Amino acid sequence: MNEILDELVPPFGEPGDWDDVLRRAGRRRVRPIVLAAVVALAAVAVAPTLAGLLRHDGVGLPAEADRSNVAVVLAPLSRKVILEAAPWKGHDGFCYEVMHLRAGCVPRKTFGAVITKPPLFGWTFDDRVRSGVATMSGGRRVPLTVKHFGGRMDVTLFLVRGRVPIPHLLKGVVLRDANGKVVLRLRRP
Amino acid sequence: MIDELEALYRSRVQEFRRVAAAIAGDRELGCEAVQEAFAKALRRRRSHRGTGTLEAWVWRIVVNAARDARRRRPVLLESRAASSNGHAPTLPLELLTERQREIVFLHYYADLDYASIADALEISPGTVGATLTAARKTLRQAHEEVEA
Questions:
Q1: What is the pLDDT of residue A140?
Q2: Mutate to test the interface with B, among A20, A21, A27, A111 (most CBs of B within 10 A)
């Protein structure tokens, strides 16, 4: 059994990052209630002069993100940043922070994924994707905002717009190309 | 206590990661769960009243963080969900209950004794022993059925 367990989760080689723990502990989280207020989205590239826009009390971009090349998605009415993305320093991939609630870095080796805990958010490296819909139990369909970030990131991000669906009711996500043809289907296992 | 938490992190982070990854079902989510768990432990360090060891208290937070991560883990695309080498571990962990799996992971990956596992999961050492025995028996029977 030991051998199979070793194979199931091989030992980690990378050292821990205590500074990252300290950084996370030093930040206050924003209550999820603000999520329901987002009704529409717009994208804008952020120059360093807009750095003030990115100051907040919640989770921020990981330290591994290349902050010289940050792109954000804004809520057009409130002008609040709801999504930040930047190239991952030293890696082929990108780092993200979504609604100041969750952050991480994603290697390009993962084909694509959706995170089901609110806010519903995901990514794909398939550049054909132009639109998407989350399907819920009971047949409800929730449109997704889809945004492609080029350059070194070269990733397409999508997130729910409007009221956040109940995550355990999520059945899957369908992503389509410019002609409406289904490119990818993601489903809850 | 910050120094103690840092020392615990630096000395045991790999074991924390393996257990968290096993529970979460994903290596990256496991690592993320450990980072979040230690951050939470730092923020709430004053709530540790000294009942039980600091390590057991942290294990409890890590296990809970990994359970949360499992519930919100990414849904991988169907077409690329298979492992790259087409080979998957044959241990039928799906036959075990969630508690049995957690006890197996804490015992084998973190090398915790029954008392420490009991502290981490807030159950009795006797329950740990009985659960581990039952888990081993289930896995052994499944293995024998495959071999037969």
A1: 79
A2: A21
